[in-house]
Design a protein that fits this description.
The complex is a heterodimer of chains A (about 120) and B (about 110). Chain A is mainly beta and about 120 residues long. In chain A, about 0% of the residues lie in helices and about 50% in strands. Chain A contains no helices and 11 strands. In chain A, a hairpin with a 4-residue loop joins strand 5 and strand 6. With about 110 residues, chain B is mainly beta. Chain B contains no helices and 10 strands. In chain B, the strands form 2 sheets. In chain B, strands 2, 4, 5, 6, 8, 9 and 10 form a 7-stranded mixed sheet that branches. In chain B, strands 1-3-7 form a 3-stranded antiparallel sheet, with no helix packed on it. Classes of the chains: A mainly beta (about 120), B mainly beta (about 110). At the A-B interface, strand 5 of A face strand 4, strand 5 and strand 9 of B.
Chain lengths: ~120, ~110
């Protein structure tokens, strides 16, 4: 059974960076299409980016290009998303999500990590 | 970028009533690449329907997805108390993946 366990809440100042972790158990990380989605308070879902194993490439949302990096540490089965140059508009819950069934959609989600950007 | 427009933004209904939610794409997409999620406040989204019309594991039969091309619909035949939530459509036909703005189904 695949499980996703995310790191705890973060509070950052404007201009800082944040790195959120998503530990995967029950599956081989490199075989999973793992993506990141965020949700600002009271707002909708926003796709940030993710890994496409068929293309062996990571894709990012254009509005975050240059500020976002997604990486993996396969030795500890953990994926990361790092966002730099934070502003108050980056305050959101960050979710990792995976397609475990090969259906092309996210059938398993982490519980979310709240990132608050405030001076 | 494929824009998904959901309507209405809010549906106010009573338990037992039916609900019809719309998701319109800015360009035609294969139905294989359209899904619906349900999100209860404070929780992560839950996959309801994928490939436009296939119910995910454990999803009750009162949820039905349909549509093709640019117009897709999620129908809930008889609202149960646990169905009052926000519903999002999403496409993975092309990068960047995109979500609709959501439809909130609230108790009237």
């Amino acid at each position: 059974q695949v499980q996703l366990v995310q790191s705890g809440a973060e509070v950052k100042k404007p201009g800082a960076s944040v790195k959120v972790a998503c530990k995967v158990s029950g599956y081989t990380l490199t075989e999973l299409p793992l993506h990141w989605v965020r949700q600002a308070p009271g707002k909708g879902l926003e796709w940030m980016g993710g890994f496409d194993p068929d293309r062996d490439e990571t894709f990012y949302a254009q509005k975050l290009q240059g500020r976002v990096t997604m990486t993996e540490d396969t030795t500890i089965a953990t994926a990361y998303v790092e966002l730099t140059s934070l502003t108050s508009e980056d305050t959101a819950v960050f979710y990792c999500a995976v397609d475990t069934l090969g259906i092309g959609f996210f059938d398993l989600w982490g519980r979310g990590t709240l990132v608050t950007v405030s001076s | 970028e494929i824009v998904l427009t959901q309507s209405p933004a809010t549906l106010s209904l009573s338990p037992g009533e039916g609900a019809t939610l719309s998701c319109r794409a800015s360009q035609p997409i294969s139905s294989a690449y359209l899904c619906w999620y349900q999100q209860i406040p404070g929780q992560a989204p839950r996959l309801l329907i994928y490939a436009a019309s296939t119910r995910a594991t454990g999803v009750p039969a009162r949820f039905t997805g349909s549509g093709s091309g640019t117009d897709f619909t999620l129908t809930i035949s008889s609202l149960q108390p646990e169905d009052f939530a926000v519903y999002y459509c999403q496409q993975d036909y092309d990068y960047p993946f995109t979500f609709g703005g959501g439809t909130k189904v609230e108790i009237k």
